[in-house]
Specification:
Distance between the termini: 133 Å
Number of helices: 5
Number of strands: 12
Structural class: alpha+beta
Strand content: 25-35%
Strand order of the largest sheet: 2-3-4-11-10-9-8-7-6-5
Helix content: 40-55%
Radius of gyration: 46 Å
Amino acid sequence: MRKVFTLILIVSLGALTLTGCSGNDDTKQVKQTDHSTAPKDNSSTQSTKGEDSSTKENSGSTQDDSKATVSNDTSNQTEDTDSHSPKDVMKAAMGQLDTTVPKMGPAKFPLDADMYLTANTGSDTNSYELVLLEMSKPVPVNTAKGYDPDKVIGKVSGKEYKSSDEANKALNPKPKVTQGNLDLGHGIKARTGGAAGHVYTAWNEGRWMIEIDSPTDPSYRDNNYPENKELAKKIVDYLETHMLPAPHEYGEIDVSTWKDHPGTTIKWQEQRNVYRIHSKRDVIAALEMATSIKPYS
């Protein structure tokens, strides 16, 4: 009986020992499972960091795009500023003309300091006209209304005729000066004489004929103009360094120094077309525009 009890006790202890060992193995398996899960978590974390890095790169790209936009805005602002230049005003004005006449206009203008050029335009199939104005601030082409006449720096026009003969008749050139009695320098002599209260001084330069009409009584002369001889020499000196357009066939400059209708008209023939520039400012202002004349598209 004692042997049986001892055997039962040994068997029971063996069973307990096996159970304990089995528990330890399960614990080891759990720990191994935990270790195998940890790398997966780290991998997920690394992926998130990669996305963050990508986000930062995209953010950097966005900043670059923002800089490009600012650069474009600055470029536009510069273009807007440049659009007020005389060159761009003339381009805009000529673009408003609907005519078959070849477009001619000045490139230089007698603008006062800190003043802006603008223009009002008119045209039809066979003619066009630009009224050139100076303003204290930028004014778009064809929007100047109720302006002071003193703001007009000049008028430029072109007209097409059916033939060059008709164009010549419209120009109505004065006779060429063949004999001169007044030395203007640079090898040029003018004819001067008076009639009915007028003093005329006229001379030729190439195909151009130039004439000054002044009152014999100085009290009727515009104060902005000197007497004939001085004014004639001033014109000759200017044209020594500035070239008028070559007319085909004739060109004429008429200067009036009368107080009630002062001004300079410059007109010339170009085949079937006649072009004119008129300015009530001093004669050099008109010559500045005429000697800078150029074709426009």
